[in-house]
Write a structure and sequence with these properties.
The chain is 44% helix and 14% strand. The chain is of the alpha/beta class and 363 residues long. The strands form two sheets. Strands 3-4-5-6-7-8-9-10 form an eight-stranded parallel β-barrel, surrounded by six helices. Strands 1-2 form a two-stranded antiparallel ribbon. Helix 1 packs across helix 3. The longest helix is centred in the first third of the chain and has 15 residues, at 87-101. The radius of gyration is 20 Å and the shape is globular.
Length: 363
């Protein structure tokens, strides 16, 4: 497995990192040992960056990682997160994560899911999350303080320029890279390590392989390989987080990490020329919007809306009827409270889209 430096930390991390958000149940239950075996397999094959968080996989991801870590030998790095804004709440979550992971210290601890500059300022306030994390770092509970974000490239540039962090995890892939490149360049120039999440666009790329076939280069057997290599070959990117829920996914991702090649400026520009600005408006399926007071299954509607953007309205209606088995009329229950849009990491116009989709049912 190829490795790269993680900023100025002195650590070298595997170009493919283990994203702990895609573990799968065995039937209706979690087989934690079986999931932990995948983590151990990845480590045996050279992966040394393991990313998890409270709440991932019905709040089982940290427990799975902790089981695996008990049996793993050699060097590896642990990444987890807290989205809490108050210092006291962050400290409680950090201590719980340490216990579940079986660690005395977190290698890369994230101020999690910074959505806007205003959100960042709240985390930086006196008594807030960053102050508590710095105190925990002084105590030896955190080795490197980093942050994760879905902000624009310009906003990321502002945050990294203020010097509070040693690294950043950012959503970045062949769909949205023109909108985040400025942030990555700024982070790299400041000596921050960079991890990228959502390299497959939340499944959008493999689920529409024919549509995105243009990203494949010489030697890429699939669009999945092409998408992962695209990220890993950026000089600014330290590690690419790939969700792995099966043995086949582990082995496939490891193989990609063993055959790294560099992106040329010409190759990047060729891909950029084939993208439209609307592709950054595709929902990545992160599901942070799932807090609707009207119990609308918002993320499913937004995933179907992707079909409208990539194909047509009929394809989106088919997705709702045959895949999600949800009536379009359910969207009529939206009261435009804005809760889903406040939580959306991409700032999508969700209420507008729900209103549009409700109209399809009458068409």
């Amino acid at each position: 497995m190829e490795t790269k430096p993680y900023g100025k930390t002195g650590k070298r991390v595997s170009v493919i990192g283990y994203g702990g958000m895609r573990f799968r149940k065995s039937g209706d239950a979690w087989d934690l040992d079986a999931c932990a075996a995948l983590v151990k397999l990845a480590h045996e094959r050279g992966v040394n960056y393991f990313d998890t968080a409270p709440g991932y996989c019905e709040d089982q991801s940290e427990a799975i990682m902790g089981l695996a870590f008990k049996e793993m030998k050699g060097d590896y790095y642990v990444s987890t997160k807290s989205s809490e804004k108050s210092g006291d709440a962050l400290r409680r979550q950090l201590e719980r994560s340490l216990a579940r992971l079986g660690r005395s210290r977190i290698t890369f601890f994230h101020i999690w899911c910074v959505l806007t500059l205003d959100d960042y300022r709240v985390r930086m306030a006196k008594g807030g999350a960053v102050e508590a994390a710095r105190r925990a770092k002084d105590e030896g509970l955190i080795e490197h303080l980093v942050f994760s974000t879905h902000c624009t490239g310009e906003e990321i540039e502002t945050i990294v320029g203020e010097g509070a962090f040693e690294g950043v995890t950012v959503g970045y892939n062949v769909l949205n890279f023109p909108f985040r490149q400025r942030g990555l360049a700024a982070a790299h120039a400041r000596g921050l390590g960079v991890a990228t999440m959502n390299p497959l666009g939340g499944g959008m790329i493999p689920q529409n392989a024919d549509y995105f076939d243009f990203i494949r280069g010489p030697g890429d057997a699939t669009v999945v390989e092409a998408a992962l290599r695209f990220n890993a070959a950026h000089r600014e990117i330290s590690t690419v987080l790939a969700g792995m829920g099966t043995r086949e996914e582990v082995l496939g991702n490891v193989a990609i990490g063993e055959t790294l090649r560099e992106n040329t400026p010409q190759a990047v520009e060729a891909i950029k020329s084939k993208l439209s600005g609307s592709l950054n408006e595709l929902c990545t399926g992160c599901r942070y919007c799932e807090y609707c007071p009207q119990e609308i299954e918002v993320s499913k509607f937004m995933q179907a809306y992707n079909k409208k953007m990539i194909q047509n309205v009929d394809a989106a209606k088919g997705e709702m009827k045959w895949h999600w088995r949800l009536p379009l009329e359910k969207a009529e229950a939206c009261i435009a409270c804005g809760e889903c849009e406040n939580r959306c990491t991409q700032h999508l116009p969700i209420t507008q889209r729900l209103k549009e989709m409700a109209g399809w049912g009458a068409a």
